Amino acid sequence: MPRVISLTFAFLFFLIAGLGSVSMADGDNDLQQIHQWSEEDKKVLRSLSLSSLPPLPSDPSNAYANNPKALALGKKLFFDKRFSANGKVSCATCHIPDYFFTDNLALAKGMATTTRRTMPLIGAAYQAWFFWDGRKDSLWSQAIGPIESAAEHGVTRSFCAHLIIDKYKSEYEDIFGSLPKINHRSCPPKASPGTGSPAALKLWNAMKSGDRDAVNRVYANIGKAFAAYVRRIVPSPAPFDRYVDAVLRNDPAAADKAVGRDAVEGLRLFIGKAKCTNCHIGPLFTNSGFHNVGLNNPKDKGREEGIDKVLSDEFNCLGKYSDAKPEECGELRFIDRNKSKYTGSFKTPTLRNVADRPPYMNAGQFKSLEEVLFFYKKSSSREVEHQELTTDELLKIVAFLKTLSGPLTPP
Amino acid sequence: MLKRFGVILFAVFFIVSMAGQGAASAQEKPTSDADYAKTRVSKTGTFKAAYTSDPETVPVNMLHTWKLKVETADGMPVKDAEITVEGTMPAHGHGMPTQPKVTKNYGDGTYLVEGMKFSMPGWWVMTFSIKAEGKTDSVTFNLQLK
């Protein structure tokens, strides 16, 4: 019996001593240790920091990308609900500025419910491919896709051309030159080759080829104005960026104030054992690639189907409505055509402001970051390597992800 | 009893360690500097090839170009080669996000490779299959990208 008591005392002694050492961890030396990173790690941290984000890349396919008038027009169009079949849907219906330019729904809802989650727009200008399946290769071409989708805006390019002529004539012509002379007879508002409706296609094919081309041109220009606006939606410094700045200038006290200790441990896992940087690299935390993380939805083949779509798109970089020279279309020219490699693959989304905008994944499968991380742990996909992480570690990664949120100041 | 437990433990340890080795040998990453050289001799010694990247430091997640210089084993330029390009990440079982191609023959044994893009840091293996003067061989370059 006395032995049991003495063992209990010994245990309590160690327990208290242990607690004491934890509470004393705030000394300068300990701070230094907590925020100590190898030179190799520091390079990675720098590469993830917003200070490594290059200036907005040029878009050779959009001659109006940096035109302030195009930006102003694009912003108006972005919020204009008249570009929809029921007069209630604009780009901002799903890309809500107050919700970091996405919405809180699992599946996007315009005229009807779509089959995928609304993509975030933050830093979109830096991407090579657009939509979850990368079926578009420029921001302007992406922006006009939803207009003709029955479940999104549900209208046609012809309808849009008439609307521009009626409501935005001077602003449009000031940027893009003369609008075409079309009327409802030469160009029926329901005419379109892109809605999937045979009736719309029949009307479209009955139009003069010059009118079809003119309408396509207006439609592309609408996209170019949208893009001039959307490309300015860029992330701003988050606690993580302040943390990296502090670490790089060897200021552990400032580092300690920037983010919590759990987040620091989460960051170590993120760039180390958890290998998150296999896909989430660079200051936008994405490689803009396509990966199958094991969600196993046989109905959605993702990138496998996106490849042919972008190659055959009349609004792609090599098409006649693009302002780029063919040699400026490298991503499209050297696109990986090995479709079977991409079954069930979806674009790696940015992680900037990720904690602010649940739900997650291509069909909004998960309501929280915790759910995403726990899914990754059990995923059997070869592209995900989180199986060995403990629950505690997963939660620390979540704590780190929460440090990627900065204020958003849209143009 | 204890002895028997020890034998079992040893057996388990042995099996686990063998399994580990099996997995490792399928994706053995070269360690010597020579394996990462920018000039390498082809598999069966037919050609010697050297690459330069533009930009000079091979970037991650950025479309860029390479120039490949091909010589015979005794240093004569190979001016009319047919070259195909493949990049893989053996440890991850996937390739490049692009399909790079030789798009220009400079005529002096140098070839322009466009569409180069590495989607992530780590160990990559670039293989150039070279067909010239009735011979076919392949040159492999290892890269450790940061």
Features:
heterodimer, A: about 400 residues, mainly alpha, Cytochrome Bc1 Complex, Chain D, domain 2, 2 domains, two-stranded antiparallel ribbon, 17 helices, about 40% helix, about 0% strand, elongated, B: about 150 residues, alpha+beta, Immunoglobulin-like, five-stranded antiparallel sheet, four-stranded antiparallel sheet, 1 helix, 9 strands, about 15% helix
The CATH class of the largest domain in chain A, by name, is Mainly Alpha
Q: Which pair of protein chains has the largest interface, and what are the residue counts?
A: A-B, 22 and 21 residues
Oligomer: heterodimer
H-E order of chain A: HHHHHHHHHHHHHEHHEHH
Report the average pLDDT across residues of chain A.
Answer: 93
Based on CA inertia axes, which overall geometry of chain B fits?
globular
Biggest β-sheet strands, sense, barrel of chain A: 2 strands, antiparallel
Looking at CATH, the homologous superfamily of the largest domain in chain A is Cytochrome c-like domain
Uncertain runs of chain A are: 15-25
Instruction: Output the structural class of chain A.
Output: mainly alpha
